[in-house]
Design the sequence.
């Protein structure tokens, strides 16, 4: 599967890294992840798979349950306890860094990437920036994953209270999120050309064929929209136009501009 990535400066030296949303992805059920604990156990015990594959299946099962629970909170009546918990969850999610969201979007099913960027940028710099965010992700999210896993037993102690164990479910979500971001970082590194490719291209002073797993495509439409940028960064109207053109998530893109 090929993923379309969009890279562009959004405010000063800050760049935005985002993946185009596939409008048909949510409409195509995978049918792989079991929906019940019994089905999960049967799948884990009946098929001889590596430990990593079984761990993936378990994480997907937990993720599916969390998504369904979140949908239930979202549909809760106004003013109810579930509605208040949903509002708190939205505030916590707003603190998640956009780079983490971007890395989570690079799933193991992605076998190649197509990168759209303004032609005013050097393609070698675009590749280096992508490699940097991927390499940083492998270090940071591995560290945060270990920290989140360590906190899970501690927060589970709050289960004895008659209130919803928000700390436990938040740490559980962060564990899952760091797991996916770490996987996305490693997958993105596999798809990007090696640093030696940039050095060879610069030394030979000629354009080499692009890697089959990473195709860089300059976008004139994106360049025209970026021409309206000011010192304070792209305006929200410009960001909305870019998101419409490339099918990006506006909330995630705005996070890049508002980063301190």
Sequence:
């Amino acid at each position: 599967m090929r993923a379309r990535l969009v890279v562009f400066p959004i405010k000063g030296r800050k760049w935005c890294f985002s993946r185009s949303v596939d409008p048909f992805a949510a409409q195509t059920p995978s049918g792989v992840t079991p929906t019940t604990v019994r089905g999960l156990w049967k799948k884990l015990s009946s098929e001889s798979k590596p430990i990593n594959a079984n761990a993936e299946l378990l994480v997907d099962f937990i993720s599916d349950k969390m998504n369904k629970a979140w949908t239930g909170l979202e549909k809760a009546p106004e003013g109810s306890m579930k509605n208040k918990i949903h509002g708190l969850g939205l505030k916590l999610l707003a603190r998640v860094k956009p780079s983490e969201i971007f890395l989570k979007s690079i799933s193991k099913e992605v076998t190649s990437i197509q990168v759209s960027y303004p032609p005013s940028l050097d393609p070698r710099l675009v590749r280096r920036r992508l490699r940097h965010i991927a390499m940083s992700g492998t270090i940071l999210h591995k560290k945060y994953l270990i920290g989140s896993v360590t906190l899970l037993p501690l927060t589970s102690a709050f289960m004895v209270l008659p209130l919803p164990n928000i700390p436990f479910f938040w740490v559980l979500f962060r564990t899952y999120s760091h797991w996916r971001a770490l996987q996305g970082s490693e997958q993105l590194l596999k798809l990007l050309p090696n640093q030696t490719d940039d050095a060879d291209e610069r030394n030979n002073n000629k354009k080499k064929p692009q890697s089959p797993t990473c195709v860089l495509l300059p976008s004139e439409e994106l360049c025209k929209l970026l021409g309206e940028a000011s010192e304070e960064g792209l305006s929200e109207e410009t960001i909305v136009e870019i998101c419409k053109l490339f099918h990006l998530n506006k909330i995630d893109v705005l996070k890049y501009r508002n980063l301190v």
Notes: The chain has one domain: 2-30+96-258.
